[in-house]
Amino acid sequence: MAIPALPPPAIMAPEPGPTVSAALTDANVRVTSAFSGAQIVLYGAVFDPETRPSDVVVIVRGPDQPIRIARKVRVAGLWVNSRPVVFEGAPGFYMAASSRPLTEIASFSTLRRLGAGIDHLPMNAPEEERIETRYGVRDVVVSRLGGDYLEWRRAVIRLKEKASLYATDHEGVRFVDRGLFRAEIDLPTSAPIGEYQTEIILFQDGEPVSRRARTITVEKAGLERWLFLFANEQPWLYGIVSVLIALTSGWLASVVFRRR
Amino acid sequence: MDIYLPIAEVSVNAGVLVLLGAVVGFISGLFGIGGGFLMTPILLWMGIPPVVAVASEANHVAASSASSVISYSRKRQVDFRMGGVMAGGGAVGALLGVEVFRWLRLLGQADLVVSLSYLIFLGLIGGLMLVESVASVLRQRRGQPPAKRRDRRPVWLYGLPFKVRFPRSRLYISVIPPLALGVFVGILSAIMGVGGGFILVPAMVYILRMPAGVVVGTSLFQIIITTSLASILQAGRNQSVDIVLATLLLVGGVLGAQFGARASSRFRAEELRALLGLIVLIMGLQMGLVLFINPEDPFILVGSGK
Lengths: 260, 306
Known about the structure:
The structure holds two protein chains of two kinds. Chain A is of the alpha+beta class. Chain A is built from five helices and 15 strands. In chain A, the strands form four sheets. In chain A, strands 2-15-14-4-8-11 form a six-stranded mixed β-sheet. In chain A, strands 1-3-13-12 form a four-stranded antiparallel β-sheet, with no helix packed on it. In chain A, strands 6-5-7 form a three-stranded antiparallel β-sheet, covered by helices on one side. In chain A, strand 14 and strand 15 form a beta hairpin. The longest helix of chain A is centred in the C-terminal third of the chain and has 25 residues. Chain B has eleven helices and five strands. Helices cover 70% and strands 6% of the residues of chain B. In chain B, the strands form two sheets. Chain B has a two-stranded antiparallel sheet with strand order 1-2. In chain B, strands 3-4 form a two-stranded antiparallel sheet. Chain B is globular. Chain B is mainly alpha-helical. In chain B, a hairpin with a 4-residue loop joins strand 3 and strand 4. The interface between A and B is large, with 66 and 63 residues.
């Protein structure tokens, strides 16, 4: 009689590893006429039986928006724009919040692999200069990877940060109690419409050990949505209606004032 | 009260917009112009994207002009035939202008062309108006007779073919100059977000030699047609007319225009022209300034290229 084999490891209760969990106060942002930006609070918890030192990184990535950036150049004493460079695949909104500076949490290569932090933002920049015809315009530089590429890239980030569309906060994730943390996501008025991928990563010893994903949806609602759809789906009718409103109100004002 | 604009996608104060519309409307009624050259730069400074500012402002100009043209027409101060000919040219110009603007935006040069157009046209016309009207005000103060208007009409105006009678303007001239003027102003209205009254009025006086009485009314009539068309084209081609923005502006605008039109009778024509010249000149220089001062940041985001 054979000695009964040890139960296969799968049946054994797995060693409960550290995990992270998170929830958003508001996963659906409605852009109405009263919209003036939104603040979303992210709450989360770290479950770790061994209470090893943990770091949490929250990455929020808005919908992709091609970025067109030009450099001011002086031509004949006048400041004019150079030909714009198009960066593709850059998000319209990006926020990286962490409990400590990212460079202290993990190595460069780990962060690069996860795309965590503005420095690791994958802005699809084709390897070489590519000049295309776009919308009938010739000689549009889609991306330029020259010696000054980094300078252009830094400029994109600087301008986006100035518009509150990109943000890095080394203290954005705060532990409020043992294992319990919170982070705030500030959406400015100019935040693009669409889906925002939120990723919560738990780091221990410089390695990502647990990840959670949440989605925030920013959408136009109510009258805003109706007008936006009207303007985009029936642009000619929309134009005629807006002109009729203008002419009618002009005519009305002159009639009303004549009576007085 | 802050309000989020559906097309401009920025949040602005609704009360400020209505008030601004009223102030610009007042000036528009006072001088018999559309007021776009004042409003468009203000909208840009408020952070409205240039494309939306230019397109929505065309709508606002149409409203203020409609508000004042009716009273001019009651006083028989509108030459509909002349206005119609110029509007025909204006339609072609607006079509061209919307396409040119679209192309400039894709090249990232829309801002530059807008600033340059303001600097050149407003600077030139404002300066000329100011010099001319100050000189005539000074002559009056000294009790000198007004400068003799050179009544000799330019030969080229009469040498051209396709002559048409314009009874209300008491003119019998070729349709080519008013048509060309219309095309030119139509292009400007699409690029600069203006009605073009500041160019039309002096051009009608000095180039077409129309009688002063019908100039303002006729210019307003032509502006309504051109800007209405520009507005529809901008909405249709570029989806850039913000109806909420335009409506807020025109509520103040049409009321302001009525008060302005009443106030205008209290001033002398020369003084009004001098004041208008000054405002036009200041706006032109202010808009052109950006071309000369060193930029804060050497880089600039030039819109999503929608």
